[in-house]
Design a protein that fits this description.
single chain, alpha+beta, 8-stranded antiparallel beta barrel, 2 helices, 40% strand, globular
């Protein structure tokens, strides 16, 4: 799903999709907006608004990522970032000993990729154990959230726990 709208309208559409996707009316899929992004060395560091999915039993997650430059590969490397960071103060370097996970990609029209996110990575992001997701793909540069029409989105599918009786 790609929106080509002004920044204010784009934000409103994102908020509506996030609200309705995560509401009790359709509690199986949520589209999580990217709230911060920065380039660290060769990787894109992205944070997502995860509050609507806290406590979910995650079944599947995909990252929708736009390729800004270069050719996309059939796989990328992912890692969890656990330190404090912001767009204004991104980390200067990646910490030593990062544990990278290979993830498959599926090319989509107009430069988009769908990346299958492993469940353990998704669960760490949604639980707050990680502050961001690092995405590294050799041979291409991905868009962050600075260009809203090409911002990354995390699509989470799962089950919302039943409220206690």
């Amino acid at each position: 799903m790609v929106w080509r709208a002004s920044g204010k309208l784009n934000f409103a559409l994102q908020a509506l999709v996030t609200f309705f996707s995560a509401s009790a009316l359709a509690a199986s899929t949520a589209v999580l907006e990217c709230t911060a992004s920065a380039t660290v060395e060769r990787a894109l560091l992205a944070g997502f608004r995860t509050s609507v999915t806290r406590g979910w039993k995650v079944e599947k997650a995909s990252l929708l990522l736009h390729v800004k430059e270069g050719g996309a590969r059939s796989s990328v490397k992912l890692a969890l970032f656990t330190g404090a960071w912001s767009e204004r103060e991104p980390p200067a370097r990646l910490p030593a000993g990062m544990k990278w996970t290979e993830a498959t990609t599926e090319k989509q029209p107009e430069g988009w990729l769908v990346i299958a996110i492993p469940l353990r990575v998704t669960q760490a992001l949604l639980s707050g154990a990680a502050s961001g997701l690092l995405i590294e793909g050799s041979g291409f540069v991905a868009d962050g959230r600075q260009r809203p029409q090409f911002a990354p989105y995390l699509i989470v599918e799962g089950r919302v726990p039943s409220p206690p009786k």
